[in-house]
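Long-time lurker, finally posting.

We've been working with TF-B3 domain-containing protein (Trifolium subterraneum) and I want a structural starting point before designing mutants. I don't trust myself to interpret raw outputs, so I'm hoping someone here can both generate the structure tokens and explain anything notable. Sequence follows.
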Amino acid sequence: MVSPSNASFINCASFLNMEALHQIDGEQSPCLDDFVSKLQTFHLEFDAYSPLGRLPRSFVREFGNLIDQYVVLRDPNLNEIEVRVVKRPDGLYFEEGWLELKKTYNIWFGGWVTITYVNPKLLAITLMTRWESEVKYPLHSPPLKLMLARVGNNHEMDSSSSTTFSSGCLYPKWFLRSYFKELTNYDVHSGILILPWYAFGQSAFAYVYSDLVLEDYTGARYQCNLQFGVDADGEFCCKVYGEWIDFCKAHHIQEGQRVRFAVTEPSSNYVLYVCVYPQIGLQTTLSYPLGDGSYLPLYVSQQYFIADY
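Top reply, 14 upvotes:
Generated this for you. Predicted structure of TF-B3 domain-containing protein:
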């Protein structure tokens, strides 16, 4: 029997110290993580000849008032397809973008889609064929992005890397390397972020000029470029530019603000996770019924970030 005093579940562990987390959770964390994920998982049929995909009634009942009009479907290889959600008298349906699954995953004869609610703008998906075999997910670097190009009332697919959203279990639960920086006036207003090479970049990036994606705590992505040079002190450094200036505007970044940059791979990262401080955390207690009639408390931690409007 799990001791209630040791039971814990972190719903948004993106920027937490995982070493400290494991001291709290022990061996129960993976079990509870899986349990809560299953509570948010549903199944629906994919009809290759229907432009609509009907969301399960149980999903509509539990998440129908939360889901956004436009939702990104993300597979295990981080490929993303945006679909439009429409409300009809008999339920909620996926509409524009839904049939893109047919050619993307080669399910020409239909199949089954498993969706896991992550946040109002993102659903994690896995797919099975009618013959109960899992599909092959495309492997691209960077991952495939099929977003709806909204022009008036018409919606067409656009292969791009538009802003997308993620949270919860899809976000990295630990980082191999991170770097905290107090942003300078140059970082904020020049459109170029300076990161040290020896203290961070050398172990985080490949030494080539390349594309780089900044991903914030909401899952929004910003397309940038990575170059190398010398900073104002003559030290070798990494220079990140492009939509970094948009990131600063979106988060109302000011000089002197403390920001954490983190990566998940040992080297050659093309995604840089960014956390803007300060932040606050809230903890909610849920109760899971046990077979003997007692209840196991589940402590759900949620991280919130303060924007200076």
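Before you design anything, note these points.
DSSP finds seven helices and 19 strands in the chain.
Helices lie at 18-25, 29-39, 57-63, 100-105, 185-189, 197-204, 244-250.
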